[in-house]
Specification:
With 530 residues, this protein is an alpha/beta fold. The protein folds into 2 domains: 47-302, 4-Layer Sandwich (Purple Acid Phosphatase, chain A, domain 2); 320-521, Alpha-Beta Complex (5'-nucleotidase,  domain 2). It is 25% helix and 27% strand. It is built from 14 helices and 28 strands. A hairpin with a 5-residue loop joins β13 (256-258) and β14. α2 packs parallel to α3 (91-104) and α10 (345-355) packs across α14. The chain is globular.
């Protein structure tokens, strides 16, 4: 928390402890006196905000508190982000995220996969007045791209005469995380093995300049960050992202890693959607080795949005439209990627009914919030489903449908439960905790149920399915083709418009209920998991 910046209860971690396997971490109380030639720094960090505007409004207020805190000793203050600050293709929503970075005073962010949701022409236009840098040491950009020259490998940030080398990397799996657009044609990310070497090259470059306090903004994921920490030398801090881990405090072997040359490397990550933020306090010796560290994670919603930033956001987006009232909402699932979320069935229903489809598929990774009891407005809908992808009407075979749903159900056994199951409308299905699709039923407009053979689906039977173009064109691998021939109609609006139109037609107050359209059963006992 912000008021913990002056805490003296720091975890001491010296190089001798790291090279001696029999030594123990020591926790001591230290005075505020800084040893000669030692440097203290405090880093305010965020990652994977995904365009969540209400949390960005809170984070702006928190950043201002961070700025105003004055310790009794000299401390360098840095504000850094690790990518996926924006999300989707809605230009106005992305303007809010971009302006947030400027308003809050961040000096840099890594290039995340969601920055590449935006085509180069629009991304270049979006960041033309950026006061922060976009970093990608493992990125090359085509010479004719509007983004050429706008992504840099690293830079030096100086405070109180102390120089910090800041490096950034983009995710090597970007092709699996971004729909096929000009971004992935013009902006190229190295594979992970090459990325490790490129990070080391940047570190070595800083070392030749006498810069020994080096921070990596990594949108590569937790397991990759651990490898980078172990397989490079000279890094001090990895501010991580992409896999949405919550790395609290500092734990040896978890987020306190020994580098190739035996020095400590601290890894952070603050979850997703701006739900948490971090403050990392560090003390470096004269050689740039971390001797003390304190990692604080706090919950963003504990802080209030302040009126000036709310007005500034509304000046960009306009005032939200009131849609209706909700009187009852089922609880949101703990693990949203592998559990039915009846809270947002209304969005899938809107996709199907507003477009007149047989059914709708909504990838669970698309959902970044939940409904609450009370007034529903258009801003809330945008917050819940912030990806702004165009809707598609697709003519999909039964086999293609079953194959796509099975890609989602395999998430039960995938690392990080990616890409997540499908939320559906016009369908019911049962899956076990091993990810096996057990039953699939098509529910027609008259509510008549038609079982589908999940082991032998028909290739000559077709359905009109509403989905977004991210899903339809191979995003997250549900469908394998980048340019599928099953798209019948491409619309110029996203599911948030359909949801707003749908809710406005409903009689308030609205009661959201669980109709059991998705059932998860224990693979060992066969019992339904509530």
């Amino acid at each position: 928390m912000i008021n913990n910046l002056s805490s003296t209860n720091l975890i001491n971690k010296y190089r001798s402890n790291l090279t001696n396997s029999n030594s123990q971490n020591s926790v001591t109380k230290s005075s505020n006196a800084i040893p000669p030639q030692h440097t203290r720094a405090s880093i305010f960090y965020v990652n994977d905000l995904h365009g969540k505007m209400t949390n960005m409004e809170r984070l702006y207020a928190i950043a201002r508190q961070f700025d105003s805190f004055t310790p009794s000793y000299q401390m360098d203050k840095l504000k850094l982000a690790s990518g996926d600050i924006i999300l989707g293709e809605n230009y106005l929503a992305n303007r809010v995220a971009h302006n947030f970075m400027n308003w809050a005073g961040f000096s840099a962010t890594a290039l995340g996969n969601h920055e590449m949701d935006v085509v180069p022409e629009k991304l270049s236009e979006l960041i033309k007045n950026a006061k922060y840098r976009i970093l990608g040491a493992n990125v090359t950009v085509d010479k004719n791209s509007p983004m050429n020259g706008k992504i840099t490998k690293s830079f030096v940030e100086e405070h109180n005469g102390n120089k910090y080398g800041i490096i950034g990397i983009a995710p090597s799996d970007v092709l699996d995380r971004v729909k096929h657009n000009k971004s992935v044609e013009e902006i190229h990310v190295s594979d992970f093995e090459s990325t490790i070497k490129e990070v080391q090259d940047e570190v070595n470059n800083f070392k030749t300049q006498g810069i020994n306090k080096i921070i990596l903004l990594s949108h590569s994921g937790y397991e990759n960050d651990k490898r980078i920490a172990q397989e490079t030398s000279g890094l001090d801090v990895i501010l991580g992202a992409h896999t949405h881990n919550i790395l609290e405090n500092v734990k040896e072997g978890v987020n306190l890693i020994t580098s190739k040359d035996g020095e400590p490397v601290v890894i952070t990550q603050a979850g997703k959607d701006g739900e948490k933020f971090g403050v990392l306090n560090l003390e470096f010796d004269k050689d740039g080795v971390i001797t003390k560290v304190q990692n604080n994670l706090s919950t963003t919603r504990e802080f209030r949005r302040i009126l000036p930033i709310k007005y500034a956001v509304e000046n960009i987006l306009g005032k939200p439209e009131i849609l209706g009232e909700i009187s009852s909402v089922p609880p949101a699932p703990k693990h949203r990627l592998i559990a039915h979320n009846p809270n947002v069935d209304i969005i899938a229903d809107a996709m199907k009914d507003e477009l007149g489809a047989d059914m709708a598929l909504l990838n669970s990774g698309n959902i970044r919030g939940n409904f609450d009891v009370g007034t529903v407005d258009s801003r809330l809908i945008s917050d819940i489903t912030p990806f702004k992808n165009n809707m598609v009407m697709a003519h999909v075979s039964e086999k293609e449908l079953v194959d796509a749903i099975k890609v989602g159900t395999k998430s039960f056994s995938n690392v990080g439960n990616k890409p997540g199951i499908f939320y559906v409308s016009g369908l019911k299905y049962t899956v076990d905790t091993n990810g096996k699709l057990l039953k699939l039923i098509f529910v027609d407009k008259d509510k008549i149920e038609h079982p589908i053979d999940v082991e032998n689906p028909r290739q000559d039977k077709f359905y009109k399915i509403a989905m977004d173009d991210f899903t339809a064109t191979g995003g997250d691998g549900y469908f394998t083709k980048r340019n599928p021939n099953f798209i019948e109609t491409l619309y110029n609006f996203d599911k948030d418009k359909l949801t707003c139109d749908y809710i406005k037609k409903m009689k308030s107050p609205i009661v959201l209920t669980d109709d059991r359209r998705i059932t998860v059963v224990d693979a060992n006992t066969g019992k339904i998991i509530e």
